[in-house]
Amino acid sequence: MLTFVGLGLYDERSITVEGRTAIADADRVFAEFYTSKLAGATVADLEAYHGVDIELRDRPDVEGDPEPILGAAESGDVVFLTAGDTMISTTHVDLRLRAADRGIETRIVHGTTAEAAAASLTGLQNYRFGKATTLPFPYAHGGDDVPASVVETIADNRDRGLHTLVYLDIKVGIGPSGPDPDHEEYMTADHAAGRLAEPLDAVGVVVARAGGPDPLVAADRLSALADRTFGEPLHLLVVPGDLHVIERDALAELAGAPGDALPDPV
After folding, report:
1. What is the pLDDT of residue 11?
2. What is the pTM of this model?
3. Taking residues 94-110, what's their average pLDDT?
4. Does domain 2-109 have CATH number 3.40.50.740?
5. Domain range list for the chain
6. For residues 22-58, b (16+ Cβ closer than 10 Å) or e, as one string?
């Protein structure tokens, strides 16, 4: 049995009761944190909280050499941990399909997602979000500009009146010069807003530390957000589309948006 467990958004306590039970019942526990991570907990914190040893895997391990995980799941109960919800990354879908191809039973224990938290904290209605996108570090895509795919995704959503969730790049174990086990870098919302302000004349909404004890939500023009700081990671950025009157009120009241920065509701 291979059970995929989402750890939730912030620390070792963000997991569901069902997820904690799955870990307690497992023979071996694996985890990866290259797609996302818990900003409020280390692997050691997780091990202490759950009373287990966690075998950490990086991206090449999971994608190119999943045999230790699959082999263990053929003969015992294995849990595979990720931050957020475990099936958001296509890498994990691939691992599940590989397990199914070998006749290994799989199960999913969901965790809270950044997308759900962004809608909840900002007051933007979740069914009015369009396609999400990820803003990479310049060195990760080979240029200082914003990738055209990012701008096009946001523009297409705005043309349809939809909001865009922009995931901000995380680099753990790899830096500007290549693999680096000591490198750990998280894109901040002010950096992202500054890069997006040039191609986009738009309002942005920052969501920082969703799921933690001190989440922060701030809305303003992208150019104005670029001049602010938002504290510790993890950060997200939302570029709203058309605003319902309740959404507009929420951004003003919950995110401190200046009235003159927000478009009229539709």
Report:
1. 95
2. 0.90
3. 95
4. no
5. 2-109, 114-261
6. bbeebebbbbbbbbbbbbbbebeebeeebebebbebb
Q: Given the DSSP bridges, would you call strands 164-168 and 133-135 parallel, antiparallel or unpaired?
A: parallel
With 90 as the cut, is the pLDDT of residue 37 above it?
Answer: no
Q: What is the CATH number of domain 114-261?
A: 3.30.950.10
- Tokens representing 218 are 């701030």
CA distances, 113 to each of 116, 182, 184, 192, 236 (Å):
5, 27, 22, 20, 12
How would you label 195-229 residue by residue, b for 16+ Cβ within 10 Å and e otherwise?
bbbeebebbbbbbbbbbbeeebbbbbbbbbbbeee
* pLDDT at residue number 15: 97
The mean predicted confidence, pLDDT, of the chain is 93
> How many residues comprise the chain?
266
CA dist 143 and 140 (Å) reads 8
Sign of CA dihedral 257, 244, 260, 188: positive
Render pLDDT for 207-263 as a digit per residue (tens, 0 to 9): 999 999 999 999 999 999 999 999 999 999 999 999 999 999 999 999 999 989 998
